[in-house]
Each structure stands twice: as structure tokens, then as C-alpha cells.
Amino acid sequence: MPAGRAARTCALLALCFLGSGAQDFGPTRFICTSVPVDADMCAASVAAGGAEELRSNVLQLRETVLQQKETILSQKETIRELTTKLGRCESQSTLDASAGEARTGGGRKQPGSGKNTMGDLSRTPAAETLSQLGQTLQSLKTRLENLEQYSRLNSSSQTNSLKDLLQSKIDDLERQVLSRVNTLEEGKGGPKNDTEERVKIESALTSLHQRISELEKGQKDNRPGDKFQLTFPLRTNYMYAKVKKSLPEMYAFTVCMWLKSSAAPGVGTPFSYAVPGQANELVLIEWGNNPMEILINDKVAKLPFVINDGKWHHICITWTTRDGVWEAYQDGTQGGNGENLAPYHPIKPQGVLVLGQEQDTLGGGFDATQAFVGELAHFNIWDRKLTPGEVYNLATCSTKALSGNVIAWAESHIEIYGGATKWTFEACRQIN
User: Fold this and answer.
1) 264 φ, ψ to 5°?
2) Distance CA 432, CA 428 (A)
3) Are 307 and 329 within 8 A, CB to CB?
4) Which portions of the sequence form the region Disordered (predicted)?
5) Nearest to residue 394, comparing CAs of 350, 331, 344?
6) What are the CA-CA distances from residue 159 to residues 109, 165, 170, 421, 424 (Å)?
7) CA distances from 227 to 220, 231, 353 (A)
8) What is the CATH number of the domain that holds 327?
9) Per-residue confidence at 381, pLDDT binned at 50, 70, 90?
10) 151-203 pLDDT, tens per residue?
11) Is the CB of residue 212 less than 8 Å from the CB of residue 147?
12) Is residue 330 part of a domain?
């Protein structure tokens, strides 16, 4: 191509680019391109630039399509997982409904699983619930008999009239329970009716407990501060007692108490001690068909206690951080021992000590299936290992029996919640 014509071609190309200056490409340079004599040089240059832009758009579209494909595959997997879970839920609901019709119990939660059921009632079968209510009514009768004996010695027309009213209410409740038993035997009544009836009866029982407690307060001034017991009549997640004092750091301990229970399966959790970051710092629990266990910092030892026969039993557990050595006593006799239970882990201070419930969170997270059902008294803690002789004195209610130097059993040290009640301790009175 002659040099003059090439120069004109470059000039025309420059004019074409300058004429389309809607876009600012920054510093520019001129590129000379050979084109046919009859071609439109401006159109050719624009077509060349459009091809590059088109190629870039195609690459971007391809990348977008690949990303969308990955997203669709991920969503398909999520839908598949959700469909599987929904199928499991539906099948579990069907099994639960069948189990309810067959009057069989379901599974229970493992200790410390973190499920919070505050405000719920225990999901026990109707027959078991009625059995518990019957036991509660019997307990109320016993307490009324004690009050009646007390009122004979301290005559009061107000006390007698209130006692008669409570006796009448107990009779009404017994008729309701009997009616419910007959309904179950005839196969009538659904889950909704069971729940309504149960809530009604438990509400009446809670009211009775509160009113009987008011009567029993009249006896409080006539007994020493440690001659009382706590009663947890139902397996709920709202009845418990809280020890006002926390524990110090301990490298050894002995914990002792009196227990009376006929609950099955498992008496529940007599006590639990939680600290920030560790709900199972120190726990005594008998859950389901498992033996009673003591947990220290989530480490577990199985204990040889058998106490759910409806009689009072005295139990003690000793432990030292050195090698994690422990011993278990029932009714003054050593029944088991072991080692390597949370060795060299001191019991941490500044926690919450609860009687009657297992804590999944600090001071809460109670689960009705792990609640203690029965009576508890003389809960004492020492920061050392007691000797067998000292344990025996406690179990036989000896006058030489010691009180805990960390936690001593006293009414002023205990706060009760949710209908748990205090009344005169009877075990040592029976022994003596």
C-alpha cells in the first residue's frame, strides 16, 4: 500500500475512534490496520472492537452459568436433606401416635443434652401419671394426719376447719383420679382429654400443697431449724429448691443426705451444682433404668445405691481430687469405691446448687424427665473426706453426728419454688 494512502487510512481510523468518544479509555494510541480498498474503515474498526466485547460477554455468561449450576446442585442437596428430615418427623409422629394409643412410654433425654423444657409438664403415659397422682394424694393424707395429731395437742378451730376443707378437697381429687382410671380402662378419652384432666388435677394438687404448707408453718416454731424435709411429689420441671450459699473451691468433699422415693424408672436428680461454662460440675442423678451416677466435671462413676423402695435411706459420697478416689455409703455401710473420677480437677467455686432438678444451664434448663420425685432431708457438704465412723453416726442419727462445714442443713439456707414443700423430718424420729 502506498505510504500516503496508509497515512490517510490511519488518520481516518483515528477520526472514527475520536468520533465514538462516548467512552473514556484513558491514554490512547493509534493502531494502523490494513483493510480492503472498498471497505468502510470506521465500520471495520467498530466490528473488530465489538468482537472483543462479545467474546468477553460470552466468557462472563459461561462463568455465570457455571455458578448457577453449582447453586442449583447445592439447593437440590438441601431440598433432599429437608425432605429426608420431614419424612423422619412424619414417621416419628406416626410412631408417637401409635405409642400413645398402646399406652407405652417414649425415649428420654440423656443428662446434659441442653434441651430446655421450662414450663412443660412431664410426658409420661397416663397410667404412670395417675399412679404418681395417687402417691401424691397419699402423701397429702399423711401430712394431714400429722396436722391432725398436732391440732389435738394445740386445739384451734381455724386449723380444724381448714383441715376439714383440705380433707374434702382430697376426697374430691381421689374421685377424679378413680373416674380417670375407669375411663382409661374403658378405652375412652384421647390425648387432649388426658392433658386437660391432668392439668386440672395437678393445679388442684399444687393449691393443696400450698395450703397445707401454710398449716405446717404453725409447727415451724416448735422444731429445730434442721428438723425438716423437702417434698417433691411430682415429676415436673418447676418444683425445686435452691441453696442460698455457693460452694468454695474444693479438692475433696463428702456429700450426705437422707432420701425417700418410690419413683420408677429412676428417682431423678437429688442435687446438681453448675458453674459458668460447666453445667455438670457436680451432679447426683438416677435417670431411667440406669444406676445412680455421680458426675464431676462431666466425668461419671456408677454408684451401688438402691433406694427407690419407698423407705428412708441415708447416702454419702466421698471424693478426693488426688487420683479421683471415691467411696459410696448407703445406710452407714460402704457399698462401693473407685478411682480416676475427674482426678486433679478441683470443684470450682461461685456456682448454683439446686435440689431436685438437673441443670442444663446455670440455674435453669430443667427437664421434667430428670426431676427428683420423693423426699430429701439433711443435705450436708464437707470439704474433706469423712471417716467411716463419722458416716455411720450420720446414718444412725447419733448425737455425735456432724453438720456440714461447707453446706449445713438449715431452713434459713434453702429457698423453695414451684410447689415443693417443707415439713417435719421423720426418718431419725423412726430410728430413735
Assistant:
1) -150, 145
2) 6
3) no
4) 93-122
5) 331
6) 44, 10, 16, 19, 17
7) 9, 14, 21
8) 2.60.120.200
9) very high
10) 555 555 555 555 566 666 666 666 666 666 566 656 555 555 666 666 666 66
11) yes
12) yes
Domain annotation covers residue 321: yes
Burial profile 209-230: b = 16 or more Cβ within 10 angstroms, e = fewer: beebbebbeebeeeeeeebbbb
- H or E stretch including 415? strand 414-417
Backbone angles phi, psi at 414, to 5 degrees: -120, 135
Q: Is the dihedral of CA 331, 317, 414, 205 positive or negative?
A: negative
Confirm whether 375 is domain-assigned: yes
Q: How confident is the model at residue 117 (pLDDT cuts 50, 70, 90)?
A: very low
d(CA 201, CA 189): 16
Whether 362 and 246 have beta carbons less than 8 Å apart is answered as no
Q: Are 239 and 120 in contact (CB under 8 A)?
A: no
pLDDT per position as a tens digit, 230-239 = 999 889 999 9
Looking at the structure of the chain, the number of domains it has is 1
Taking the CA atoms of residue 89, residue 91, residue 92 and residue 97 in that order, the dihedral angle to the nearest 10 degrees is 120
Burial class (CB in 10 A: 0-12, 13-18, 19+), 379: buried
d(CA 416, CA 421): 7
Q: How far apart are CA 109 and CA 287, in angstroms?
A: 9
The CA distances from residue 13 to 5, 22, 26, 47, 258, in Å, are: 12, 16, 18, 13, 104
Whether residue 323 lies inside any domain: the answer is: yes
Spatial contact of 343 and 322, defined as CB atoms under 8 Å apart: yes
Q: Is 258 helix (H, G, I), strand (E, B) or coil?
A: strand
By C-alpha distance, which of 348, 366, 365 is closest to 357?
Answer: 366
CB 212 within 8 A of CB 421: yes
Partners of 374 in the β-ladder? 232
Domain of residue 304: give its range.
240-422
